[in-house]
Design goal:
Layout (H helix, E strand, L loop, with lengths): L1 E3 L1 H14 L5 E5 L6 H11 L14 E4 L6 E5 L14 H4 L4 E5 L13 E7 L5 E6 L16
Parallel strand pairs: 2-5, 2-6, 4-5
Antiparallel strand pairs: 1-7, 3-4, 6-7
Helix pairs in contact: 1-2
Amino acid sequence: MWTLTEPDMAKAGAALAAAIRAGDVVTLSGPLGAGKTTLVRGLLAALGHEGEVPSPTFAIVQPYEATRVPVAHVDLYRIEDSHEIEELGLDDMLLDSALLVEWPERADAAAWPQALRLSLSVDADGRRALTWEVPGAWEGRWPPPPLRA
């Protein structure tokens, strides 16, 4: 577990960018305002994206192809039935992109068994706690050394 300030979230995203590959899935769980999109912004900046990174709450899937690793930023918050996810074509995107999935709880419990599962929470002081579950596909890549201020 890492305890992070909001600015540290971008550093955590950059650490993730160093490890991510096409075909990877990273799920991001946590309440509204916990820093999921902030972490994604840090990852995309580290991958070479220049420009805005809006939350994909309304678009649901926001692709970023002009980066070192193409990424699809997915927000399942508005999904009401896990069967709707099949229509998004996410599995096809994994052929040449990585998926960053916010609100994975909206998907079937068996979705993405080899995903790196990141969870964020916020304490009363505004610090974020970042915890993870590391599947075999991510062993040796995550977690990286602790973040430096």
